[in-house]
Fold this protein.
Amino acid sequence: MIVECLVEANPDFTLKPGLAESWERINNTHWRFHLRKGVKFHDGSEMKAEDVKWSIERALKDPTIKSLTKIKSVILVDDYTIDFITEELYAAFPATLEYSKLAIVSPNSKMYENGVIIKPIGTGPFKFVKWDTATETLYLERFDEYWKTKPKLEELIIKAIPDPASRAVAVEKGEVDFTCDVPYGDADRLSKEKGLKVEVHSTARVYQLTFGSLKDTPYEDVRVRKAISYAIDRKAIAEKALHGCAEPAYGVILPTLWWANKNIVGYEYDPEKARELLKEAGWVDSDGDGIVEKDGKEFSVTLYTYPQRPGLKPMAEAIQAYLNDIGIKVGVRVMDWSAIKKYMGKEDMKLSAYHLAMVPDPDYYLRKTYHSNGLYNSWGYSNSEMNKLLEDGLKNF
């Protein structure tokens, strides 16, 4: 709302011009971006290439941003042209400039001595007015010199309401005019309330089950991982546990994204197949208590998740029931995201909402998650063929 990026994305994640009206690749590591003329910052000054250079170089002081963009240097060509030199051939580079931390802010923005901006001056449709730290409330007002269509709203107040049920109550009582992610079981009831409108949209997120480790755990055996996939009825979870507010996943990529493989079949619900695979892997119920064992140890784990997203707890409880049905004893623990790492063991599981949307390119999520050295690859998945494909993808236009 306050700041904007050089590059923007369409709903299918194809790129489109933002504050840069066009760009081209000069050679394998040299990119040129042409800025829009006449774009005003909220203080009335015109956005020029020197402002963009300052803003990007400030962001690059964060090592994660440096790693994401692979920017080696930023060069001013003229007032409305700026060049980027990358450390290596990086086909996904333009998409990285859509990342929120690379949004363009004016050097006149107020910041702390450590460079953290506390009063951003951007180019977006709304100007920053105040951030109330005590109530976690953001106050914005319309920017009348906005370069695109001027907003109809004169002001916006954005409140932090972490609890899904509290969000539903707030919109029902009229304390807020709009909210997201209410408990899915409330969606139908709220849609019948006079003056309320409920819309359900797909987002670029996938709910994903991950493991503590693939080393020296049952999950090291691919048959066990396949058994878990066959044991879960995704369709029933989407329709019943999530009240029709979700779709079964076939792979991790939303099918509406331009790079999605729409031919992936995925795992159907087949508990008998799941039991066969567990048996092949040496997991059998030898004492008749309904829990499979191997080498005298029963298959017993904890499934961790967190409360902020309303779909996670009902999904976790459904998965618990499905896995118990094939002989895997599962307990569910719901706790704050930051605490899960402290308690989760290597034989446990975690249910999370993974976001594909931070950068509109498949490289961002896939390489972080499935490369042997990936930032999100905490469970130790390693596949030389996968590594090569992901690395080749960096160089493929």
Remarks:
- DSSP finds twelve helices and 17 strands in the chain.
